[in-house]
Every structure is written in structure tokens, then in C-alpha cells.
Write a structure and sequence with these properties.
The protein is of the alpha/beta class.
Length: 335
């Protein structure tokens, strides 16, 4: 049986981006050994005009560029692809290499120290539980008095304020302009969007917005809101992952699955249980379908960003990025 807690899943996803505020979204594979991080290139990024293949030599970083979103198009990265401002890029790396990469391109790589949260619902409750362990300074603004009392009783270190967050004065009194992060988690999407747009106008900090309805995601995507969390998408991702993992074959098991670009590109983690055509030759000699990227291999706890001469071995965990949606088995990657 599978039990899904969308509020807890949303809190975990928010906590990940607060630990690494330069990323819009972070997915993890192989029990956190590998991260897939999505971020947007500002106009002054040193990556603008650079080709994908130049990153390793120019930045001395062991990261792999997986996808690029430009306008409404999604590309699986090829070596000659040139970055432009406003591209949304996803990279894969172990946490330490990701940290070095972001430092080299002048992004904030340190976790935020303090966060202001609008709304005191279930996601806030789980988020406080996670962030308290990280030693983060947390302020919550909540307009329901009972909820304020409950949160105050549960979290002695959290500063819970009885006020309405949609009132700009309340936000300024709580120093939203100086907060390293602002998270809008009220029950209304419209409120969350307005609060986040206001936060973006007064602070340089990280801004995270929760949105329940997914039918306007293309419109919302153009609002430049930084990180957007859709609890419903998290739930559907879990269900798809579970259903596909139930259909597993003998040779490989699907362990984790994320939609990196909704409806266009997925990242999947497989465990290789037996030798097959995939383990028979180095990657450069495998006849992989187009639109398939072998993004990372974890072997005996060590992360490899694979080169053409590397081979997949029995026992490996392998992360694949592909625009062929609906993969059940790694052998489907071959032509």
C-alpha cells in the first residue's frame, strides 16, 4: 500500500530550496547522493554565450547539464548548445560539486538563515519541523488565533505572529525587506501570488509560492515568481512513480521518477540488477535512442558523472534524463 502526504512532500521540497536558494527546484536521487537542480540564468551570468561542453574546462566543475528550457521549448543538452540569458537550466551533480558550481557562477550557495512564512497551515507545520532541525530562524504570520496558539505550543523556537499577512504593514513590521527567504503558504492561490510579487519587489531574498490549482501553470510560469510549489503535481508524480515501479522487469528496477519539464522531460533512477545489452559496452558504443542522456551513475556509494568510455555495471544506480515519457525499464533506452 502507498500512503501519500502531499503537505509533507511540499514541505520537504521547500526545505530543499531554502538550503540551496539559487535553485528554483531540487530533486534528489540515490538517497540524496545526487541532486538535480534547476535554475534561471540572469542577464549578467558568466554562462551566457558559453557552450555546454566548455563548462568542465572553464569552471573546473564536475556537473552535467541535462536540460535547457528557452521560451516554451525544452532541449536535452548537447555539447554545442549555447546558453542565453533567461534560459532555465537543469544540472545534475553530487551536493558538493553543485555547491562549487554555483559559487563559480556567482550564485548564492549558502543556505538561508532566516525565513518569513505567510500562513500557518499543515505545510507550515511540517516545514517548521524540518527547518527547526536546521537551526533556521523562523517567523510565521497567521490570522487564525487557534492556529497561532497551536503553532506556538508546538514550536518554542518559532516566532508566531497573530496578523493578516495580506496586510503589507504586517509584512513590513516583520522585516520582509530584510528576510533571506519568504514563503507564501496561505490557503488562497491569489493571495500567495500577490504576497510573493510584493516580496519580490522589496527583497533580494529567496521567494517560494505555493499554488494549489495546476490549470493556470503556463500563465503563472510567466510571472517570474522564483520557486513555485504545486502540491498536486507532487502527489501525481508519486502515484505515477509507484504505478510504474509496480510494473518492474527482471533486469532493472525503477526507483525514483521526476518530471523535470512537465509533459516533456523526465528523470528516472534505475537499479541495474542483472547484466544486459546495457552493461555489454561503454556508453559511447551503446545504441541509445535520441533524446536519452545517461546523467549519473552511483557505484558502491560513489557518484560518477559518466563519460563515453564509462560502462554501466550490475549493481549500479543509474539516473537517466529523457524526453521519452513512460519508461518502465532501462532496456527501453536502446534503439
Amino acid at each position: 500500500a502507498m500512503v501519500i502526504n502531499p503537505e509533507y512532500a511540499a514541505a520537504e521540497e521547500i526545505a530543499r530550496v531554502l538550503r540551496f536558494p539559487s535553485a528554483i527546484k531540487i530533486d534528489t536521487f540515490v538517497k540524496g547522493k545526487i541532486e538535480l537542480l534547476k535554475f534561471k540564468l540572469p542577464e549578467d551570468s558568466p554562462l551566457c554565450g558559453m557552450q555546454v561542453r566548455e563548462i568542465a574546462a572553464k569552471l573546473h566543475c564536475d556537473v552535467l547539464v541535462c536540460t535547457i528550457e528557452r521560451d516554451d521549448e525544452a532541449f536535452i543538452a548537447s555539447g554545442d548548445f549555447r546558453f542565453e540569458a533567461r534560459d532555465v537550466i537543469s544540472i545534475i551533480a553530487d551536493p558538493k560539486s553543485a555547491y562549487n558550481f554555483f559559487k563559480r557562477i556567482n550564485y548564492k550557495a549558502k543556505p538561508v538563515n532566516d525565513v518569513l512564512i505567510a500562513g500557518g497551515g499543515d505545510i507550515t507545520h511540517y516545514l517548521c519541523r524540518i527547518l527547526e532541525k536546521d537551526g533556521m530562524s523562523i517567523t510565521v504570520i497567521e490570522k487564525d488565533e487557534d492556529r497561532v496558539d497551536m503553532l506556538t505550543d508546538m514550536f518554542s523556537d518559532v516566532n508566531v505572529i497573530y496578523a493578516d499577512a495580506i496586510n503589507q504593514e504586517s509584512l513590513m513590521q516583520e522585516n520582509i525587506n530584510r528576510a533571506e527567504a519568504f514563503v507564501s503558504l496561505t490557503n488562497l492561490d491569489e493571495e500567495n501570488i500577490l504576497l510573493s510579487l510584493f516580496a519580490k519587489s522589496v527583497t533580494e531574498g529567496k521567494v517560494v509560492t505555493k499554488i494549489n490549482r495546476i490549470d493556470f501553470d503556463s500563465v503563472i510560469g510567466h510571472l517570474d515568481l522564483d520557486t513555485i510549489i504545486y502540491p498536486k503535481n507532487l502527489t501525481s508524480d508519486y502515484i505515477v512513480r509507484y504505478v510504474r515501479a509496480m510494473n518492474k522487469t527482471m533486469g532493472t528496477n525503477l526507483e525514483t521518477l521526476y518530471q523535470i519539464i512537465k509533459g516533456k522531460v523526465e528523470a528516472a533512477e534505475f537499479t541495474v540488477n542483472a547484466d544486459s545489452a546495457l552493461t555489454a559496452a561503454p556508453l559511447m558504443r551503446l545504441k541509445l535512442r535520441s533524446g536519452v542522456l545517461v546523467a549519473a551513475i552511483v557505484r558502491n556509494g560513489k557518484v560518477l558523472i559518466p563519460r563515453g568510455s564509462d560502462m554501466i555495471q550490475q549493481g549500479d544506480s543509474v539516473v537517466i534524463v529523457t524526453n521519452h515519457l513512460g519508461l518502465h525499464d532501462m532496456n527501453d533506452l536502446l534503439q
